[in-house]
């Protein structure tokens, strides 16, 4: 049984000539630049006093339009598809940066962390706010590396639309599938942008076909490229039948001309565009009944007479219904196609009022917001990002946290612009705010104006639920859906330089855990060591580096280990009695439990109670019983790994009067552990689903290498001149690739004599547990 399947991708090039920039997770830097806190490197951004010129906008001048003119969007893609470069161009053309930043130079706006600039990858999501042609756009640039998938998940939760960026030479890649599924989960309307049309091997047709086949989406071709690879020079607007050509002498891409296609000048291009437009009209008519009626009644004989505005409105409706996705193309690095992309964002993606949020009817005009991200600032303290769904936020406003059941006060309200922020007097519904002063708010918390407001909303929800015959408890009605935190797949010990620094380390880890919920910290009960659990080697490496840079602690990491799981194969019963006398009080508990395997995947034990259990007794001791069961399942009898996919049934419970809840919990825990030891046990091994792109001549060595690593090949596909191997392999067998690849790239070592899989870039990894895979067989 497989759970939480995520995709692992690997890229492989021919051994004699290795294209490092295509296969690596990290880009080789031409120059490394360190980032000082809150000081931009080589950027002239609008929020800094003294840097505002005549040709650059101030963040204070950002328009505050009605909610219909607001767009909350995210940029999502596979690693190295060009998300940050696209964001950089968007900010430049909208007038909020003075110069074009470059990822290789480490001077982009949204990659402001030192670790991001050194590695050339996005590690944490960054929010920026700007305006474009009368629209206010709140944009979030998200990471592409799977170690930071949670960043994408929690941002998509609060967005109204997204731009999926694709490498035109590769089409749909591994992490593209992951972020696409995340967008499906949150019902996010999307636009596809085929980037890198100037890259060698770029193919518009192949990229579109991969969207259709792998994502099972219906692409609406709104643009056609004029040339591909080295010959790419512009795009054709299929809707308006115009061509957009960028000035070759322009260094920044601001200068481009829009010309109508004419029979005398471009007969072949006009014919191709007309056919594409007719196909687009037919495709939209099949998906939108209102547009179909219009076409049949007025324009069935000649589609050329159909106004572009009517077609654009229909595409907007189809995009909102998520029955198809508009497709555009360009090259962010070569500064082509970004302005039409911005127009498409404002034209086709929804405003906040076009999104259907059921809970808004309960709050009416009262404040309702969701905290989706927390950052720690040395000067300001915790900074909490919020999406405002209704009401207004102002500085010095007292708010109520439903999750934490506490009241806090917002001291300051900021407008986010990467690591630079502008203080504002208020912010209304539909926007993304950055608040200062909330010390107890965490990711996923629901924020309302007061406790009475929450109760009033609960009463409205209860009345609505009675009308529709629903039965939800009060918490389910009030809380907005939070974020699902994935289970970590790697762990290692972490130690401070001395015992005197242990409190400082605990404080640093506490702050980092609040920022990053996918980071888990636990104390090993046997050794007493602090154990760091993360989503991958890069994730743990970044945490280690941040502790050093931001908190000044030289910590030591133990060897990286794989996070296994344990389960049982048969049903067993156990009975235990705990009899202790403490002082003059006797504590006596007798428990009988049954442990059995379950078919459905469950990380936490499923707790059940037999009908013979006294309800009154259960009511006073249920919390202690469940605490005991959970603590017993934290460490299995084989490796000490957590137990999963089990159900624990309490069959009998006898408690002596005066027995403390601690003794009840201890007895239940000991009884469950006894049952687990009696059962037939099995270790569950984490598997990586992988994708290896390899030249045809080197397919055999890669297949042999995967076989040695106990890999299972599921499919071999063809991608242009390469072969794509799809399968899965145990994580423990592939761990060495992480270290070898990182060393080879950082030291620029020759890779010609290297094991084929050592040249593979691990783009994504996850915990995939296969129940019929025995731990003992795996070690044979």
Automatic annotation (TrEMBL):
Residues 68-353 form the Tr-type G domain. Keywords: GTP-binding, Membrane, Mitochondrion, Nucleotide-binding, Protein biosynthesis, Transmembrane, Transmembrane helix. It catalyses: GTP + H2O = GDP + phosphate + H(+). GO terms for biological process: mitochondrial translation; ribosome disassembly. The keyword GTP-binding applies. GTP binds at residues 77-84, 141-145, 195-198. The keyword Transmembrane helix applies. GO terms for molecular function: GTP binding; GTPase activity. InterPro entries: EF-G-like_DII, EFG2, EFG_II, EFG_III, EFG_III/V, EFG_V, EFG_V-like, G_TR_CS. Coiled coil: none annotated. It is found in: Mitochondrion. Its main location: mitochondrion. PANTHER family: RIBOSOME-RELEASING FACTOR 2, MITOCHONDRIAL, TRANSLATION ELONGATION FACTOR G-RELATED. Mitochondrial GTPase that mediates the disassembly of ribosomes from messenger RNA at the termination of mitochondrial protein biosynthesis. Acts in collaboration with MRRF. GTP hydrolysis follows the ribosome disassembly and probably occurs on the ribosome large subunit. Not involved in the GTP-dependent ribosomal translocation step during translation elongation. Belongs to the TRAFAC class translation factor GTPase superfamily. Classic translation factor GTPase family. EF-G/EF-2 subfamily. This is Ribosome-releasing factor 2, mitochondrial. The gene is GFM2.
């Amino acid at each position: 049984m497989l759970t939480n399947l995520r995709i692992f991708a690997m890229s492989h090039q021919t051994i004699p000539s290795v294209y490092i920039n295509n296969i690596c997770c990290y880009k080789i830097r031409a120059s490394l630049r360190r980032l000082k806190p809150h000081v931009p490197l080589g950027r002239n951004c609008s929020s800094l006093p003294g840097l505002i010129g005549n040709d650059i906008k101030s963040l204070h001048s950002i328009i505050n339009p009605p909610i219909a003119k607001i767009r909350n969007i995210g940029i999502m893609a596979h690693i190295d598809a060009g998300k940050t470069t696209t964001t950089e161009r968007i900010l430049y053309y909208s007038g909020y940066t003075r110069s074009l930043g470059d990822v290789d130079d480490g001077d982009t706006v949204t990659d402001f962390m030192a670790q991001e600039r050194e590695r050339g990858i996005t590690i944490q999501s960054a929010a920026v706010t700007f305006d474009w042609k009368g629209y206010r756009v709140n944009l979030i640039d998200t990471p592409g590396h799977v170690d930071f998938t949670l960043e994408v998940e929690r941002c998509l939760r609060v967005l109204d639309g997204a731009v999926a960026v694709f490498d035109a030479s590769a089409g749909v890649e591994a992490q593209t599938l992951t972020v696409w599924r995340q967008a499906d989960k949150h019902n996010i309307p999307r636009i596809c942008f085929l980037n890198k049309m100037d890259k060698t091997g770029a193919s518009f047709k192949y990229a579109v076909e991969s969207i259709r086949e792998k994502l099972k989406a219906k692409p609406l071709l709104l643009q056609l490229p004029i040339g591909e690879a080295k010959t790419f020079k512009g795009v054709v607007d299929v809707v308006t039948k115009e061509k957009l050509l960028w000035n070759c002498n322009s260094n920044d891409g601001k200068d481009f001309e829009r010309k109508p296609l004419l029979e005398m000048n471009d007969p072949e291009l006009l014919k191709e565009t007309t056919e594409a437009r007719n196909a687009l009209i037919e495709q939209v008519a099949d998906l939108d009944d209102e547009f179909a009626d219009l076409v049949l009644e007025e324009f069935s004989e000649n589609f050329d007479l159909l106004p572009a505005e009517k077609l654009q409105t229909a595409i907007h409706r189809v995009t909102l219904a998520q029955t198809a996705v508009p497709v555009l193309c360009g090259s962010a690095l070569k500064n082509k196609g970004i302005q039409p992309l911005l127009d498409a964002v404002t034209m086709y993606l929804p405003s906040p009022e076009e999104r259907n949020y059921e809970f808004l009817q309960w709050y009416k005009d009262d404040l309702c917001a969701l905290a989706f991200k927390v950052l720690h600032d040395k000067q300001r303290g915790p900074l909490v990002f919020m999406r405002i769904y209704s009401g207004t936020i102002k500085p010095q406003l007292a708010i109520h946290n439903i999750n934490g059941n506490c009241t806090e006060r917002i001291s300051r309200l900021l407008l986010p612009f990467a690591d630079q922020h502008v203080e504002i007097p208020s912010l209304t519904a539909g926007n993304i705010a950055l608040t200062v002063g909330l010390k107890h708010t965490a990711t996923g918390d629901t924020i309302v104006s007061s406790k009475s407001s929450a109760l009033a909303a609960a009463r409205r929800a209860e009345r609505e639920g009675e009308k529709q015959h629903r039965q939800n408890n009060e918490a389910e009605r009030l809380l907005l859906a939070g974020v699902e935190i994935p289970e970590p797949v790697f762990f290692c010990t972490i130690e401070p330089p001395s015992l005197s620094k242990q409190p400082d380390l605990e404080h640093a880890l506490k702050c980092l855990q609040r920022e990053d919920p996918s980071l888990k910290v636990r104390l090993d009960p046997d050794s007493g060591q602090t154990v760091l659990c993360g989503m991958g080697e890069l994730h743990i490496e970044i945490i280690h580096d941040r502790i050093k840079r931001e908190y000044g602690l030289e910590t030591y990491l133990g060897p990286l280990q794989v996070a296994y799981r344990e389960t049982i194969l048969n049903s067993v019963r156990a009975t235990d009695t705990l009899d202790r006398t403490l002082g003059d009080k006797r504590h006596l508990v007798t428990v009988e439990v049954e442990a059995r395997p379950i078919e459905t995947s469950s990380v936490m034990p499923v707790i059940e109670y037999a009908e013979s259990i006294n309800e009154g007794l259960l009511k006073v001791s249920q919390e202690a019983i469940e605490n005991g069961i959970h603590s017993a399942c934290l460490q299995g009898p084989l490796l000490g790994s957590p137990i999963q996919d089990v159900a624990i049934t309490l069959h009998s419970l006898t408690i002596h009067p005066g027995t403390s809840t601690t003794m009840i919990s201890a007895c239940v825990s000991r009884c469950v552990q006894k049952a687990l030891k009696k059962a037939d046990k099995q270790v569950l091994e984490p598997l990586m689903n992988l994708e290896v792109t390899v030249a045809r001549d080197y397919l055999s060595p890669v297949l042999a290498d995967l076989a040695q690593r106990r890999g299972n090949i599921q499919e071999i596909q063809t991608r242009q001149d390469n072969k794509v191997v799809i399968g899965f392999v145990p994580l423990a067998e592939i761990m060495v690739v992480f270290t070898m690849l990182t060393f080879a790239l950082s030291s620029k070592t020759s890779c010609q004599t290297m094991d084929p899989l050592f040249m593979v870039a691990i783009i994504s990894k996850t915990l995939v547990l296969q129940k019929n895979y025995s731990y003992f067989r795996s070690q044979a």
